[in-house]
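Appendix B: complex inputs.
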Amino acid sequence: MDRLTDERVPEGLPAPELLPFQGAVADFRSGRDTPRDYLERAIDRLAVWEGRLHAFAAVGIEQARRAADASTERWRAGRPRSSIDGMPVGVKDVIDTADLPTELGLRAYAGRRPLVDAAAVLGLREAGAVVLGKTATTEFAMTHPAATRNPHDLERTPGGSSSGSAAAVGAGILPAALGTQAVGSVLRPASYCGAFGYKPTSGAINRGGSHDTQSHSVIGVIGASLPDLWHTAWEIVSRVGGDPGKRGLVGAPQLAPPSRPSVVVHLETDGWPLATDEARQQTEDLLHRLERAGVRVRRRQHDAEVAQLEEILAGALAKARSIINVESRWPLRAVQRIAPGSLSDTLAARLAAADQVSAEAYQELLDWRRSARRTFAAVMDRADAVVTLAATGAAPIGLTSTGNASPAVPSSVLGTPALTLPVLRDAGLPLGLQVMGARHRDAAVFGTARWLLAAAAGEEPATGSGPAPSAGGAN
Amino acid sequence: MDRLTDERVPEGLPAPELLPFQGAVADFRSGRDTPRDYLERAIDRLAVWEGRLHAFAAVGIEQARRAADASTERWRAGRPRSSIDGMPVGVKDVIDTADLPTELGLRAYAGRRPLVDAAAVLGLREAGAVVLGKTATTEFAMTHPAATRNPHDLERTPGGSSSGSAAAVGAGILPAALGTQAVGSVLRPASYCGAFGYKPTSGAINRGGSHDTQSHSVIGVIGASLPDLWHTAWEIVSRVGGDPGKRGLVGAPQLAPPSRPSVVVHLETDGWPLATDEARQQTEDLLHRLERAGVRVRRRQHDAEVAQLEEILAGALAKARSIINVESRWPLRAVQRIAPGSLSDTLAARLAAADQVSAEAYQELLDWRRSARRTFAAVMDRADAVVTLAATGAAPIGLTSTGNASPAVPSSVLGTPALTLPVLRDAGLPLGLQVMGARHRDAAVFGTARWLLAAAAGEEPATGSGPAPSAGGAN
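Resulting structure:
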């Protein structure tokens, strides 16, 4: 990825720079570096940024140091627990942590202390990761913004709802942070903040103790590289599984090797007409580059099946929001009961909107979602991946809106894996290329994304090569 | 149901007697009775029983009185919120309540106070029901018993895991209480305590804020009559829906009219060889009575499809436990983290057993469950209901085991609706007749159960009659 030299980063702040973790492991092994030293550098960057960035809802320096010291001991003894042992991580503040407050961006939850860790947090800790803090979320992971700013331009939104996770990773404070996505809450902020983002197949990561209980919501990862995303997700799931009754994340512990796609689908989504000229041009340029490399690109204009998919996904944002609204009546009405008037007007309006959706209308929305999933599966029978923008352009100016989620919402309702790669630019700022795949084919999407990442940088990697621990992120 | 005159009820305690709520509504409407007076009588019975019964984990007298007073005002003004406005209820202590502790029977959760009500509790409150207390549960709703005793014989288990709900309803303290069932935790204790029990189609009642997050677990109701069960469930679901992404309870607000089945399946389950002679004889007598009334009874001995269902359900208890164990690794490992050594040996052993189940073995268990559901659906294409014992006999003597769940587990893994009717006897104590139906056909199961209830009492009701508010319970 380009090193950023944007003038809008104010004086006194370093240029935001992704900081992949996977390269550190070799140094931990050799003893040149330790998890404790790695953590201290993260804390230093936190100290530089946080006063302007507001990425964190809570920080736990002392417990992080204790965890990093324990990790340091394990690496010294040659017995690390996992490929992410010693990795400092952030946890979106809708996911319970036993040692830090979990407030969900809700006024009524100020100071709330869960008794136990959520499943994903337990998985992180059992893998040896070091939880540095809780990252800021929009109110109840919906649209009313947090105070978080974009590290690439403090006057712009970081996106939402995983605002703090994206800002902290984008600024280079952390190599990875957990997010959640029910509409576009992992992919969009990752795109805006110049980070990698991973929204898994729905059900792939156990949501126990996470407050995103809506039916197609998932826990995802925002990180500094593709290996950081994969290893974080895989190490969690190998310890705590997927959602109850679902197949957890499928794949090998190692990141899939780069894999050249034969056929990709360009999905426009409702976001295409809303995208900036530059964003569209960047997408077209990339697609043409793929075609020159011999990749067949299926487009709605010449492919009835793709056109049908676009059609069934038309209006997906409003429909996804309706599903989410209905499925959020509880707990929001329960919150109103203990703290009347504590919800923002935005959230109160969404709760009121939910009451306009009848039980029959809700079932129709679920039927639509099932039908869209069938259509997508049919398209994917003859394609290796879907590529599309992760957002309509660079992060918009201002902090009152978290931006438009239209390009990111399809993977949510379809329950498919999706990645965003920070390889596009708009207005001198980061923009993500989204790569989607078939359900449960998360590992394959990573393989395709590794190839696309190199292709976007003008290289074509040898495909099928073994996993390279440091590949995919810093290049 | 017979009035009980069992000598084992110790002196000083009244004979346990079910106390249906639905008859009270007419008196509330006429002004002869009020919800506050109704509550005070429940509190009086609580005072008589609780010292010996230990059915409650927490009681909230003052807040219940305030809620009952508000309900009294609504009835006076002719504006009750629902058919259960003013009904005192108990809530199993694995379901969060904002105004009472929720401890899950876990030592590590002593004094835990949730911030907000669970969805089902919110639904109850919005319908005007009066939460009198939290009912005792086995540890984490599994097998390590609570201190609760059986109101029909204090030396016997009330069953589990919804021990307190069944004991409180069976003793006549409350007309209804919420339970949960992932193995046999609604049907078995209801059977042992002489109460009606309802285990809905999986997903029918929103489990938000309930800690039974396992994939086929459901919230159910233990009550004093069929109308009490139906109205409680229906009023909750009409306000808070089913589990996210699932169809909530399907049916009219009114209880279905009695409906004579043409064909019933007698499912033996693994419980049949374990059942007492008297329990089997009572079942056979009932089946013969049905046959004399012109109902066709399909049995494994002469029906290959039923035999196939019995076969696929063989070993269901161990398989269901394995699924539940895996799906309970979180939060149990998270509990161990904050309170090492706080789990009972029983629960620690189940957690250890979960670690022996590989991800592949877990997927095979889910495949088995799917396959069993298909087999059941095929059987139900040519049957109106399944009848079987709800337990292997009367509640066993002793408080160290909560009894055998083999007869109750099929409805859990099949995700089907099931009722238990207190119409059988064993050793002079209550025993339930279980009635199961096809998924989402909960209302029809109630209709069949109403007919069976009358048939078991030697009557044959006119079928297809309109719902009678006081029917089904006290007769």
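Chain A touches chain B at residues 98, 108-109, 112, 115-119, 122, 125-126, 206, 208-209, 213-216, 240-241, 244-248, 326-327, 329-331, 333-335, 337-338, 359, 362-363, 366 (CB under 8 Å).
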